[in-house]
Fold:
Amino acid sequence: MPSAAAPEAPLALVETSRGTRRLAAVDRAAAALGLFPGQKAADALAYVPNLVTAEAEPEADAQALLALVDWCVRFSPAVAPDPPDGLFLDVTGLAHLWGGEAALVADFRRRLARNGLPVVCGVADTPGAAWALARHGDGASLCPPSRQGELLDHLPPSALRISAAACAQLERLGLRRIAEVRRLPRSQLARRFGLELITRLDQAMGEAPEALTFRRPPNPWFDRLALAEPISTPEDLARVCGDIVERLCARLSAEGQGARRFELAYHRVDGRPQTVEVGLAVGAREAARITRLFLPRLDQVDPGFGVEQVTLAAFEVETLSARQAALAREPVGQSSVEIAPLVDRLANRLGTERVWTSQAVESHVPERAVARRAPFSPETPARWDPARPRPIRLFRRPEPIEATAPVPDDPPVQFRWRGRLHRVRLAEGPERIAEEWWKVPIEAASTTHVRDYYRVEDQDGGRFWIFRSGLYAAGAPARWWLHGLFP
Amino acid sequence: MSGSAVTERALDAVRAKIAALETGGRGETPSLAFGDPRIDRCFPGGRGLPLHRWHEVGGEGMEAETAAAPAAFVALLARPLLKMGPAVWIARRDDLHPPGLAGLGFPAGGLVEVWVRDEAQALAAAEDALGASGVGAVVVEADACDLTAGRRLQLACEKGQATGFLIIRRPFGGGAKGTAGGSAAATRWSIASAPSAPAAGRPGLGAPRWRATLERCRGGRPGTWLFESPGAYSDTEIQDDAHPLRLVAELGDRQLAPAQPARPASPAIPFPVRGDGAVRRRA
Structure:
């Protein structure tokens, strides 16, 4: 992208390709002096000794392009990047919001120019024609509906997005206008230049379909609110949040849908969107409730010099049948969704990873027997085995204890934990838990991770879950650990 | 004759007035009977544990830090309340092991667990959960609860019709925080684990037992009991209708004189109880 530098200092970006330093991009002043991308840097510096050079950063350019694509969402939800320096905007059915395509393009140009980005744009029925008009057009960037043929005819064949080799060959044959290419028989064109030329030609003319890879898949659950005056006070931010949520929720409600995630974006005058997101445990469309989830998070929004547009998108939209709330309480397990608003409040306040429901996992290893799942997500049929007692408090790391066990394969008669001596009155076990050898390579499986668990009760009635690690080996002292507490 | 009837009526009126004052003019709240008159009569109206209130449960000795026995006791108290809605468990330490709850007969699969960062968040989340509709029981583990926070919890209970349980749990190695300003809880319990009594000839541990002391009860009186959870950690089918806590014995309160002389004399069982207690519930 050409950048606006001081007119007296021509600027060029330099890259190293195949061992040679070449110009990657030149600004207007440099181009006026006869420099061009692809020229050797040494030659360029010889022609223009005061040329200012900088290293090209293709990754940073790609990132900047993606940022620009994200910003363009304010115009249309369907934006596709066209690396290295272009983008497609699907404005089908949107122009009337600006009062016509010309006004839309003017607004687009003005906003980008304000941010120091000069752009050329073309609007046409097909992406191919728009591309050609933007890159090779002569200022007439608007193509009237289904008249792309006339406008494209006098453009060079390179406007067809074809490879440089095909382009050069067409040039050698003296085909300098698209009109001349179109006059040739198609079968010969395809044989000589490959299918690419035909496909690109058809796509530009609207005779073949073209699929664009949009940065975000188009989302029908999207709403925008353009503001006449930029706003910045917290009260105003809250009010427009309520307004836009109500609009989108009315649509959701009319179609019997509910969404599990909402993304609210405040578009600032300086072009940086500020997004806030809320998640819900089950699909919802109650505007008041969703607004209440957004309100505490609006203090993260920095309105800067003002917010001129608000967009709201709903994700994970699912069919939600109308429910009659609070008439009859159903038994547990069927209507626990009644507490969904509470779960949403807690999850949005504390973080979604801090609110969960436990789920049984079929594993003998106690640490792995529990998985966390989001509340109200579908349950798996796994159950904890009632024949294997498990403690009510399980330490994340087993704590070492000093145990006295006179008989090798017996529970200890006493042990010391956290400085207190516990005499074992009753004991139960062992329950041998080995590592899950079927989950590791068979050579790696060993008996060193075998644990013999005992449930013991001390003289005061305290109940503990202790284990000895490893198999009994003569001479080696047995190591004992406390892993959990029974009630 | 008529004079005594008038006195009686006047006394009744005064009693009703006192009861109304005690409940703050809110009328009668529902309660959950233990199914044994030896416990139920200690609660207001002799009807068992008051619901739509919050209860404070602490541990004795080591249990003040680990809170394993109080957690189990609370889970069993709360189990019958799950008919009214799911339970929410709020804690700062994430060492609660749901398979252990499942072993006690508590359906841990529907429990919503909330892991908070600090004490203030725990009490705020508890208040939010108690005030929400459709919640059966809320368990919160916290260091302490002052009078203001307790009052807020109580108001939330009345709004949401949920029952709260506050497990007082001291940080490991830390000192206990005193609740100097009193407590707004409906009851205050202190739980200690008690030696189990396996059936004769059966190896291993018996059903878990706890010594539960009702230290304070608004509109009731204190008491100490030995409870057992008969179905815990066994394959036996747990009956849904019976209260999950079975009274093994009523333990003599060594500090307090009997509050009512009219109480039928029951032999005080010295602690600890070995074997089956002399006083058993007649089925």
Notes: The radius of gyration of chain A is 34 Å.
